[in-house]
User: What shape does this take?
Amino acid sequence: MFNNQPKGLYVLALANTGERFGYYTMLAIFLLFLQAKFGFDSTVSGQIYAIFLALVYFMPLIGGWVADKWSFSKCVVTGICIMFLGYAVMAIPTGIRSTSSLVILCTALLLISIGTGLFKGNLQVMVGDLYNDPRYSGQRDAAFSLFYMAINIGSMFAPMAATAMCKLALDSNGLVYNADLPALCNGLLDGTVDASAVVAKASEAGMAVGSDVAAWASDYISVLSTGYSYAFAVACGSLIVSFLIYFLGRSTYAHIITDKKQASGATVAAGPELTPAQTKARVVALLLVFAVVIFFWMVFHQNGASLTEFAKSCTSPEAMGWTRIGFNVWALASVAIGVYALFNLFQSKTNKGKIISVVILAAVAGALTYFYSTTSDPLTGIQPQQYQQFNPFYVVALTPVSLAFFGWLAKRKAEPSAPRKIGYGMIMAAVAYSVMMIGSLTLVGTSGSVSPNWLISTYLLLTFAELLLSPMGISFVSKVAPPKLKGSMMGGWFAATAIGNYLVSIPMILWGKIPVYVLWIILIAICLVSAAFIFSIMKKLEAATGDAPETSLEETAEGELIASEAEA
Assistant: This one.
């Protein structure tokens, strides 16, 4: 898995890990931040969340176009700087429930979106360009899986960082987190909630309110919002680390950097020249895949929207048995390390390597035993954002399993094409939301206390879907995009993601208006229809991209592509 990879992959992956850690630290609490600081309901907060996500993933389309005309590396550096400014603005504590604070927030979100647009897609194009070298061309799919794994290492620790910052602010003021209190406090300040409800909930959480309940409610929201601002400051720090990694490791990827102005009149992009027919076939194939990707991201990015709302309103804040150590990110990291050690045990060709693996596995077993024995049973006070660490954990832990499985299929010439993997990913997403549907059948309205295992299991199944679609999809775009349109086509992938991210708001609009289980049925239907669509055009996609089994130049309808070109 790590063999025959260029050094530049690890530098670019680590730079992206730092940036993604900051982004997901912010995103883990973003919906909760909007609802607490500004008193927005699920519909309004869901709309803002979806618009921001859409903007973040639409901007790489523009960023790709700029990079095609300018320089991928310069766009990456500029993007880091602009994102830093955005997070720095968000980190400034401002007044609660005020118009000026909302204007400042919108400015920060715009800066983050623009910076991400310049950074994200262009860094991934640079990763793809490392594999234009024939020495590494066969490692492209594995490379993007490793790159995706690195992203999720940062994502896995992000909710813990956000939770720690919130706890720091609350603890320093003698307060504790309660998922119901932000809405109750805002309701009291709006005049829609009686003071007795706030007092009762605060007393239940072990806090004394005092005689001026309104002042206490305002203070609680302000302190919690300050904790969220601390988390945004963490994102600033992560971008500094990302920049240092990118800058100090420049020598490992310098050979792929091209300044478009300096290269005017020369062949800028690596790879074979394509005829107009070949270019058209590739672009059409990519656009068809983008159409399906829209709906995958609509259902997948519910993790920060309706799934977070479900965690807050419908899920028990307590966990028992082995489940409870899943909320300790260090326990999850130990499991992930154990998975890699286990793979190394069977793959190592030396006794020394096997012994090291056994020692690591023993240490992991000891660590898990320690976490289990020292974690209170039941574990209480689970915060909604903590569920978001399960998806990146699953990605990190399951990536070697995924690579081994598809490697095994490839050796038997039975590995599915990238479009087929995307179709299977949509089916798996439908299975994931089937679990949510079953877990929601007992709910009355949008309140309840179902087991955390429903959400944890759903995240596992959604991760299977993600591993089938996301890293393979990015690799597919990098491989199939016409050389002179790499930045634009990678931007197109993110533009499709942007549309899907805006559609994330639909379940939030429906939240509380229809039974929760019906909401999941709608998402299941969307996944199944999308899967049916991509399988209905599968032959066309595989022929156009050279991924069809036993497809040669003569066998394609118009002879647009050959397999060697597809690998370039």
About this structure: The first helix runs from residue 7 to 38. Residues 260-270, 548-568 have pLDDT under 50 and may be disordered. The two ends are 20 Å apart (CA to CA). Residues 131 and 137 are 5 Å apart (CA to CA).
